[in-house]
Design goal:
Layout (H helix, E strand, L loop, with lengths): L2 H19 L7 H13 L4 H8 L3 H13 L3 E5 L7 E5 L1 H25 L2 H23 L1
Antiparallel strand pairs: 1-2
């Protein structure tokens, strides 16, 4: 298999895996994504969230509004620009995100245990390490 085919197979397989695992989600993917960005990156403006998610400002604002209504995020004035608000994840938001992440991990864990032999699980661990290195390299570019 040449490198182009490998890259396409990897892209396709990872995409399918992510979509399959997300099937257990109990909240819209956009809301989970915003909570994830806030959990990993700290408070952000709606514009920053839109940029990170690759969506319009209006779409991000709608998602933030829904999360606010559910008490999963809160806002406060931006410290250096009074026209902006910073969005913060709340404890309830962290708990909800944790539930989503645990459901995804649990689904993967069950599938790994059922579908793969002990040797294949070791090989998969090596593959995860390779994917992490590949991701780090891509982020440097």
């Amino acid at each position: 298999m040449d490198d182009d085919a490998l890259a396409e197979d990897l892209r396709h397989t990872i995409g399918e895996l992510v979509r399959t695992v997300r099937a257990v989600d109990t909240m819209p993917s956009g809301e989970a994504a915003v909570l994830g960005h806030l959990d990993r990156g700290g408070p952000q403006t709606t514009a920053e969230l839109a940029h990170r998610r690759g969506v319009t400002h209006q779409s991000a604002a709608k998602t933030v509004k829904e999360l606010l209504a559910d008490g999963l995020v809160r806002t406060e004035p931006h410290p250096t620009d009074g026209r902006k608000l910073l969005v913060h994840i709340t404890d309830a938001g962290r708990a909800r995100l944790g539930t989503e992440r645990n459901q995804r991990s649990g689904r993967l864990d069950t599938a790994i245990g059922e579908a793969l032999s002990p040797d294949e699980r070791r090989r998969l661990r090596d593959g995860v390490d390779l994917l992490a290195r590949l991701n780090a390299h891509l982020k440097e570019k």
